[in-house]
Amino acid sequence: MIGGGYAGMAAAVELARHDVSVTVFEAGRIPGGRARRVEIGGIALDNGLHILIGAYRETLRLIALIRESGAPLGLLRLPLELTIHPHFHLRAPRLPAPLHLLAALLGARGLRISDRLSAAAFIAAMRSRKFRLEQDTSVTGMLDAHDQPDTLRRCLWYPLCISALNTVPAEASAQIFLNVLRDSLNGTRTDSDLLLSTLDFSALFPEPAARYLASRGGVVRLGTTVNGWQQSGSGFRISTDADPFSHLVLAVAPHRLNTLIDGHPALADIAQTVGAFSYQPIYSVYLQYPAGSRLPFAMGGIEAPYSQWLFDRGRLCGQDGLIGVVISAAGAHQELEQDELARRVHAELSARFPGLGAPLWHRVIAEKRATFSCTPGLRRPANATPVPGLYLAGDYTASDYPATIEAAVRSGIACANLVLEDQSLS
Ligand SMILES: Cc1cc2nc3c(=O)[nH]c(=O)nc-3n(C[C@H](O)[C@H](O)[C@H](O)COP(=O)(O)OP(=O)(O)OC[C@H]3O[C@@H](n4cnc5c(N)ncnc54)[C@H](O)[C@@H]3O)c2cc1C
Fold first, then answer.
1. Residue 423 reports pLDDT greater than 90
2. Separation of alpha carbons 47 and 268, rounded Å
3. What secondary structure letter does DSSP report for 387?
4. pLDDT tier at 232 (50, 70, 90 boundaries)?
5. Which terminal Cβ of the chain has fewer Cβ within 10 Å, N or C?
6. Cβ < 6 A, ligand 1 pocket
7. Cis link prior to 290 (omega < 30° from 0)?
8. How far is the CA of 36 from the centre of ligand 1 (A)?
9. How many CB atoms lie within 10 A of CB 237?
10. What distance in Å separates the CA atoms of residue 68 and residue 75, rounded to the nearest whole number?
């Protein structure tokens, strides 16, 4: 396995569960890839503030599987609640689906009756066509075609689209957005739950997964970058190891894939497909306020030029007074120096939450290629490649989902199943 992010670790855990011994090569010193701990001045931050939802079934299954006995699950489960402070608030009551959604829309604060009816009519129309479009288009194009009013777009559809697809609605795939709505809002009531991590994202899954592997004869080699591989008999040799492996799973981010497949003519089509991807950033701005500073929620949004979603790390992880702010997708924030961006984010927060005081320190973490741009009709490669025994795992492989933890985990599991099938045939 090359890559110890969520996809690679999911593939490895699934194989280990079936008693296959796995070696994971991970370039970083901390596993997790794009969802990992970043230690700054002795404080554990995340490279990105992540949200999981109840519909992330495979992620939740594996987190539960590898959890050591007595260890906390590390996730705070909340019923669907969307806050765009102070003018919009939607909360799903504990009713069976889809009544919970209907009740949430009907009871939402900040929408006119006509907005609520438009939202309900849109969801009903999508349900009747099983959330499938004949032809993919942009999210904006789809909302135009269904006469979705401005308030609804600003408070509901656009924030959901940007946080799920990390792509602005004018450029985002309507079909992938509908897939997310189908699985989150149209499944069981708990599918729409929000799950917020009380641990950092390396401690949530990749680190206990590494211990799970070790207990089953596997190994994770951190700080080990693989520079190339060759076919050797019916298996593979890689640059860092003399011993051959029966199978090879490339579980690296899409922008790293081509350095590992260039020069392999059978993989030229995959290289071209992934080479055509464009990428979107996600910025995380951390502001340490004096101890005792609190937001009115663990996670919620504000409508502001820069800040989108705010996480109260005091409430979530016991990091008193630490507020994390997410800015997804491309935008004007990319033009600013990091100190200036932090200053403006602080100004937006203090305008809405005057009790916060002045930050003691700040840190901006810019992930410039956080995810691929999730555009209409994007071609994504399959897990299987034309080279027997060589598989691709990652959030970018063909699936119903945008670049998310669940897409990465499902892709890893799909690769593990392909390896298991090979083994059962041989
Ligand atoms: C800031 C940010 C916020 C996000 N927010 C959310 C969210 O709220 N919810 C959500 O579901 N998703 C979110 N995502 C997306 C999610 O983090 C990714 O989809 C997921 O982590 C991708 O996992 P992966 O295993 O496919 O790839 P990666 O995490 O990129 O893993 C690839 C691994 O391969 C390693 N590697 C690369 N090249 C080599 C090599 N040559 N040799 C050895 N190792 C190598 C890398 O070091 C890395 O660890 C966010 C992403 C970011 C960046």
1. no
2. 32
3. S
4. confident
5. C
6. 2-8, 25-28, 33-35, 47-48, 50-51, 225-226, 251-253, 256, 282, 284, 367, 370-371, 394-395, 403-406, 408
7. no
8. 8
9. 17
10. 14
Residue with tokens 């951390």: 286
So what's the pLDDT on residue 240? 77
Q: Report CA(154)–ligand 1 centroid distance (Å).
A: 29
**Structure confidence at residue 13 (pLDDT):** 98
Give every CB contact of residue 27 below 8 A, 6+ residues apart in sequence: 3, 223, 224, 225, 226
Residue 67 and residue 210 in contact, taking contact as beta carbons nearer than 8 Å: no
- Specify the pTM: 0.96
Q: Is the pLDDT of residue 97 over 80?
A: no
Contact assessment for residue 362 and residue 287, using Cβ atoms and an 8 Å cutoff: yes
218 Cα to the center of ligand 1, angstroms: 21
Return the minimum-mean-pLDDT range out of 96-105, 192-201, 261-270, 338-347.
96-105
Our measurement of the distance from residue 302's CA atom to the centroid of its chain's CA atoms, rounded to an integer in Å, reads 20
Secondary structure class of 138 (helix, strand, coil): strand
Q: Is the pLDDT of residue 241 over 90?
A: no
Length of the chain: 426
Query: The tokens of 393 are what?
Result: 């795992």
* Cα four-point dihedral sign 46, 50, 54, 60: negative
DSSP, res 401: S
Report the Cα 91 to chain-centroid distance in Å: 22
For CA atoms 183, 159, 297, 292, the dihedral sign is: positive
Judge whether 268 and 274 are in contact, CB under 8 Å: no
In 162-262, beta strands by DSSP E: 194-197, 219-221, 229-232, 235-238, 248-250
pLDDT above 70 coverage of the chain, percent: 100
**Residues β-bridged to residue 392:** 250
C-alpha 79 – ligand 1 centre gap (Å)? 26
Strand partners, 288: 322, 361
Q: Return d(Cα 300, Cα 109) in angstroms, integer.
A: 14
| Stretch 210-227: mean pLDDT | 96
Does residue 220 sit in helix, strand or coil? strand
- Average the pLDDT over 343-351 and give the result: 97
